Amino acid sequence: MKKVVAASLFLVGLLSASAHAHKTWVRPSQTNLSGPEPWVTVDAAVSNDLFYFNHFPLRLDGLKITAPDGGSVEATNQSVGRYRSVFDLQLQQDGTYRIAVINQGLFATWQENGQPQRWRGNAESFATQVPKDASDLRVTESIGRIETFVTKNAPTTTAMEPVGKGIELLPVSHPNDLVSGEKGTFRLLVEGKPAAGLEIEVIRGETRYRNSMDSMKVTTNSEGEFTVAWPEPGMYWLTTSTEDSVTSVPQAGTRRLSYTVTLEVLPE
Fold first, then answer.
1. How many Cα atoms sit within 13 Å of 139 on the Cβ side?
2. What is the pTM assigned to this prediction?
3. pLDDT reported for residue 20
4. Within a 10 A sphere around the Cβ of 249, how many other Cβ atoms?
5. What are phi and psi of 152, to 5 degrees?
6. In this predicted model, what pLDDT tens digit does every residue of 56-85 receive, in sequence order?
7. What is the pLDDT of residue 12?
8. Longest Cα–Cα distance in the chain
9. Is 197 exposed, middle or buried (0-12, 13-18, 19+ CB in 10 A)?
């Protein structure tokens, strides 16, 4: 049973959710800050309602924060509670920070003595922990990126340079310079290359306090670009996913890629 629960949580953390399922997110207390060394607090959760933590905390094992100069920064005051994880970040440099929780791993199922078996881990441990002659072996690789961006003073783009793994977002419009009544344009990459035909779901937060999700859907063009017209201010949740067969182990037939970002849209 423990293996089943662990595997379920693993997939929840990696796969993008539909409008009727749990949603994974990271939400900063602010996205635009000023002053000598301001702080931001970030919540991270898997929830039924957007930005209202009521299901599971999002684990911070894969937390990676990229500073405006491209270097790495450590979060402080990390804590995992019953419904959410939380941490603080001091913005010592001017510019834009990339805050991401990145999950990558393998999920396998097979039959052993007539009983279903489940395993999760990385490519290195797969060879020693999963029987080579396992019956009905099915292996799926997953790469999920859940992120947001915060800026101290003037926005920059160095922290947003692609690493070439999974789905990534590149700014055409800067993610910390979005205003209601205007349009924001972004480019999605898969393995560092423009990804055409990806469908992105866009939902404004505070879904707990309205009767419908008011979900919008847009699709990337041949250059991997998509545009969103922001109807009103607020924190927005954008998510997309895709599958391919570019796996890191021969036994894995499918690779699932997901991407989720939280963006703040300010009033006109």
1. 25
2. 0.88
3. 46
4. 15
5. -105, 120
6. 999 999 999 999 999 999 999 999 999 999
7. 43
8. 64
9. exposed
